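> call design_seq(struct)
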């Protein structure tokens, strides 16, 4: 299930002081290349572009492919033109995305979109200055990381429409969980909240990484933890499965769950990241 980047992959199980080390830009770019090729290969095999995507309710495979290709083109434009803010999609839509391809051309159009993004990021300087919307060591590091995980998750969506989903390397999974919990869900506008203070711990058993999510009336407040500990609910499983589950691409209930399962439902129904 891990494909070319399984347990023995390029960044597999690198550790510092007992934890998986932070991924470098070059490793995110390698992941982006790999996941984009998996996505393109999946699109090559599509016979029904109207097929529903079970992990993205309301979307067809066509809409999923269009979405990811558009995201790649949007991100490449931000980096290439050193934009200091989000491009105005309403007024620049045709310039950013162009005309959507006919169904027989979708896979090739996606490959072109992905290749242009990779080339743009590879050619960007280390001191690139442009807009980014989550904390990172640099804008280039942010976009390489964000696009690697965007591609991995939507590759999983495309595979889900036709069968089984490939997993990811444990270190990449831990990096993605960090981005989701400490990036997206460190923002005050998240909707995963409870009436009283509760806590959910998450442990990637094969990667030595744990997090605890504190819920309350003002939303969710995740942090890295030293290990699995006392919480109202604890979820344990392999890093790859937890990564997909926390992005609601696998059922969290399929992991090992101890304690109050209502907190799993709070996450499942409220933890969403949308295109805005």
């Amino acid at each position: 299930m891990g494909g070319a980047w399984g347990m023995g992959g390029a960044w597999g199980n690198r550790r510092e002081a007992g934890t998986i080390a932070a991924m470098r830009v070059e490793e995110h770019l390698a992941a982006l290349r790999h996941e984009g090729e998996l996505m393109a290969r999946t699109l090559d095999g599509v016979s029904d572009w109207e097929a529903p995507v079970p992990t993205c309710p309301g979307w067809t495979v066509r809409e999923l492919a269009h979405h990811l290709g558009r995201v790649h083109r949007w991100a490449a434009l931000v980096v290439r033109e050193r934009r200091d803010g989000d491009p105005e999609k309403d007024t620049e839509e045709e310039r950013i995305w162009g005309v959507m391809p006919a169904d027989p051309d979708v896979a090739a159009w996606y490959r072109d979109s992905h290749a242009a993004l990779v080339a743009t990021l590879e050619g960007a300087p280390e001191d690139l200055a442009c807009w980014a919307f989550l904390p990172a060591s640099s804008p280039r590091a942010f976009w390489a990381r964000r696009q690697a995980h965007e591609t991995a998750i939507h590759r999983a969506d495309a595979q889900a429409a036709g069968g089984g989903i490939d997993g990811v390397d444990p270190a990449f999974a831990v990096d993605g969980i960090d981005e989701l919990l400490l990036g997206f869900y460190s923002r005050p506008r998240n909707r995963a909240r409870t009436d009283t203070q509760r806590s959910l711990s998450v442990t990637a058993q094969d990667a030595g990484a744990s997090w605890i999510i504190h819920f309350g009336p003002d939303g969710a407040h995740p942090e890295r933890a030293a290990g699995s500990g006392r919480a109202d609910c604890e979820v344990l499983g392999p890093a790859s499965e937890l990564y997909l589950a926390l992005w609601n691409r696998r059922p969290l209930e399929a992991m090992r769950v101890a304690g109050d399962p209502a907190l799993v439902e709070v996450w499942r129904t409220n933890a969403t990241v949308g295109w805005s």
